[in-house]
Amino acid sequence: MTKFKRSAQSQPKHGKPSVSGASKAPIAPPINRPGWTGPGYIRKAAKQTPAAVKEKVSIEQIQYLAVEHQQLILDTIRTTFPAVEDFNALIPVLTAVREALEQKDYTKTFGTEEFLEAYTIRWSPSHALTIANVLAWVCSEMGEAVWVQQFLQNGGQKSSKIVCIGKGGSDLLACVALLKHCHESKIEKLPELESSPSDATPQDDISVPSSHPSAVDKDSAMIDLNLVYKHDWSEIVTRLHHTLTHPPPLSKHATAKARASNISVIPSHAINLAANHLDILDSASADLCTMIGPDPALITLFFTLQEFYSISISKTTGFLSRLTSAAPKGSLLLIVNSPGADVSLPDRNNKGQEKKYPLEWLFYQALTPPKSKSSSETSSEDAEQPAWEKLIENGHEKEYKLPAKLEFPGSLENTRFQVHLLERL
Prior knowledge:
By secondary structure, this protein is an alpha/beta fold. The protein is 39% helix and 15% strand. It has helices at 6-9, 50-58, 67-80, 91-102, 106-109, 113-122, 124-141, 146-153, 169-187, 215-220, 234-245, 256-260, 285-292, 305-311, 313-326, 359-367, 380-384, and strands at 60-61, 160-165, 223-229, 271-277, 297-302, 332-337, 342-346, 354-358, 388-392, 398-400, 415-424. It starts with 5 loop residues before the first helix and ends with a strand.
C-alpha cells in the first residue's frame, strides 16, 4: 500500500492553467442545489432599485387618436411615395441618411430630394404618429388654455393659428390627423364648398407666404397652418398636401357607388397652408410677428431644438428671445424632444474641456430666465413678471406605442419623448 500524497491528488485552487488539451470550460453547477428545490421553495422576487421603480412609474403612455386616424397618416405617406412598397430597395439611401444624422450633418441629411423623400418614408411616419397623439393629448388635458378653447369651440367658424417650426412633412400630417380627430363631423359638411378641380397639379395646392388666398377660402379654413423650416421641404409638403386634398385614384373598373364615396381626406380649403423656407435662427423679429400673427397661436418645436443648439447656442437663444416677444398673449409653445437630450458647452473651470447641459435647462433659461436682482429700465413689478407660464414641465418621460392594427410596409417604431408646454402671459 502506497503512502497517500495529497499534493499528487489535487491542484492549487488558483494555480496556473493546465497546458493539456483538455477543455478549460468551468464545471457546470449541480442541477439540484441543496435548499433550492422542494415543496417549501419559493423563488424570491428580484429586488428593484429605487431608480428602476421610478422609471417604471414615470413613463406615461400617450394614445389619444383612433386607429383609423393614425392609419390615415400612414396611408397618406404610402399613396404619396410609392417607393415605400419596395422598402428593401431603399436601404442603401436610408443608410446614408442615418449616417448623416448620426454625424449631425443636417445639411447633407436634408440637402437633396432623394434624401428628403427617404427620410419622410422612414422617420416621418413614427414622428407624425407621435406628434398627432401629443396634440390630441394637449387638447384633451389643457381645456382651460385660450388656444385650446378656441380650437375646440370655434372649429369651422374661425381658423385657429398653428405655427410648426420643424420638418414639414410630419408636422402637416399630424395637424391634419388632429383636425380629423376633433372636428370630423364639421369636416364632412365642408366638401360642398370645394372649388378646386380634381385634376389640379400638386403645385397648385399650396399657398406660399406671399400669396393671398381668397376671402371665401380664408374664412372657411379651420386651421391657419404655417410651416417653417430651414431646409427646403416645399416639394415634400406640396405632394403630401395634394394627396390629402384630392380623392385617391380609383381603378377604371370601380363601381359608381365607389366613385360617389371616393372623397378627399379634407377639402382643400379646410387648411390655409403656408410653407416658409426660412433659416429661423437668422430670422428677424418682424418675420416671426408676420408668421405668428396677432391672435393666440399654437407654436410647436418638434424634435428640432437639439439641432438648433448644435448649430449655434447663441443664435438659438436669440431666436427663443425673439419668439417670446412675437408670441401674442394666450399663445401656447409646445416643445417635444428626445429624452436625455443634452448640449455641450465650454467648461469655464476647465479650459479646453466641455460640459454637457440638459437641453430643457438651456431653453428654460432662454424662455423663463432667472429674475434679476435689479433693473434700471423697468420697475420691480414688471421685472418680476414672467413671460411664460409652464403648463407641462419635464416631470417624467412619455411614450407612444404603436397600435397592433396599424399597417405600413415600411419601418415603424415606438417613441419615447419629453413634453414641455408653456402659455404666453
